[in-house]
Amino acid sequence: MAATEFSLEPCATDPIETVFRTICTDLPVAESLPIFEQLRHSEARSMRGQPPLIWNQAEGFLVRDGYGNQWIDWSSGVLVGNAGHNHPRIMQALQEHLASSKPLMTYVFAHQARASLAAKLVEVAPDPLSRVFLLTTGSEATEVCIKLARTRGIRSNPKKRVIVTYAGGFHGRTYGAQLAGGSAEWLDPNPSFIQVPFPSSIDTKDPSFSSFTDSLAEAGVAPGDVAGVMAETFQGREAKLMPVDYAQALRAWCDEHDAALIFDEVQAGFGRTGKLFAFEHYGIVPDLVPCGKGISSSLPLSAVIGSERYMDLYGPGEMTSTHTGSPLPSVAALASLEAILEEGMIQNAAATGEYLLGALQEIAAPYNERVEVGGVGLVAALLFFDNRQSLTPDPQAAFEFCEKCFQRGNLLFAPVGKGYGANKFCPPLSITREAIDDGLYGPGGIKETLHDVMGSRVVGATT
Ligand SMILES: Cc1ncc(COP(=O)(O)O)c(C=O)c1O
């Protein structure tokens, strides 16, 4: 099922002028349409899914087009811009690199920025995560984790090749990552990948760890055949962590059966949840951690951080990538990490995130028979349902909400999750309470927009 496309028909908007948001044109802007046409004639159809603005400038938690409009960015791209758009430290580090004629690529030949970044990642990761492999995308990072788990498993026992992941999970869009994410219905079914229920999902009946072992038994998988278990640290579609006792039981189960525990931090890492790594909420350490997105807050870079046991399975030249630790992305990632660590952004994500979650819960309360709110740190989700009993998603309501927010200066990426029924709020970690209040309660804010979308759908809702 594909997402709904946003209309390219310019639509009259009510002007918005606040400290953070300006909407002063029809949207999409008529003058911008030739750019969309160019893209439509040259790109794959799959690239059309986002609200139709042309990003022209971005700074901190604000995004501007070239026509006078400015949005609060609730998207961070797609949870990339943790340190904020064009953070001065990142910009300066990149400019210094460019000004000094340092190389723009080196393949696997060594360079200082890669060495500094790898050392910094090892320094901030808990033991035994002492090795790093730098890549470009999150999908590559999750695929490397699958490969390492299966390599170690198969070397010990040819049947030890099963990768257990979670229903409703997402690990990227390359082939193996997609098999792991459970979108296998349109691909070749692969018996080496099985999915179990995510314990805190809205449609999961049993949050206890027995749902894991029961699901393996139902699938006929012997624990000894499991090479690895991979979970998003919080499941992206609902922005909810798993129960702590479940995570701890999972760690113990993986130890008992010598399976790799992989927590996918591509979305969850680098301060997003109010901890540097979201797995810290569970008081355990995984064996392998795929990272991406917010690792650089900007240029494409991903990483696998893991224990030597897994990371040193391959010899020189056997596990590399052309763009591994490319210089500019490495420079950006190092500057971003320093900014996140030294400028209180993790603490801000925890405190401001709690405020945001509480505010969204309050705003959504009148519609709670059809809207559910989840969140941790600075990632929250509004889930829209047609029917609360059957939990059928309402993609139309989620889409209308997203489009109206866009027309009023609140920029969200297009709906995601089950049936495209969820809207996510994940601003840069530098966002202030003042900006949150403006986006939520200011003129044309989220509160008003939710009422406009849900007021007529929920009989008797009072705001
Ligand atoms: C949890 C998770 N893992 C992996 C990926 C894939 O990352 P990329 O799109 O950089 O390949 C994503 C991207 O949304 C993600 O959210």
Short description:
With 463 residues, the protein is α+β, with helices and mostly antiparallel strands. The chain is built from 14 helices and 19 strands. It folds into 2 domains: 16-83 and 344-454, Aspartate Aminotransferase, domain 1 (Alpha-Beta Complex); 88-342, Aspartate Aminotransferase, domain 2 (3-Layer(aba) Sandwich).
Number of helices, counting only DSSP H or I runs of 4 residues or more: 14
State the helicity in percent bands. Answer: 25-40%
- Kindly report the spatial arrangement of strands forming the biggest sheet: 3-4-5-18
Report the β-strand fraction as a percent range. 15-25%
Set down the secondary structure blueprint.
Layout: E1 16-17, E2 22-23, H1 33-42, E3 57-59, E4 62-64, E5 70-73, H2 76-79, H3 88-99, H4 112-124, E6 131-135, H5 138-156, E7 162-166, H6 175-181, E8 193-196, H7 210-219, E9 226-232, E10 234-235, E11 240-241, H8 244-256, E12 260-264, E13 288-291, E14 302-306, H9 308-311, H10 327-342, H11 345-364, E15 371-376, E16 379-387, E17 392-393, H12 395-407, E18 410-411, E19 422-425, H13 433-441, H14 446-454
Parallel strand pairs: 5-18, 7-8, 7-9, 9-12
Antiparallel strand pairs: 1-2, 3-4, 4-5, 6-14, 10-11, 13-14, 15-16, 16-17, 16-19
The structure holds pyridoxal-5'-phosphate.
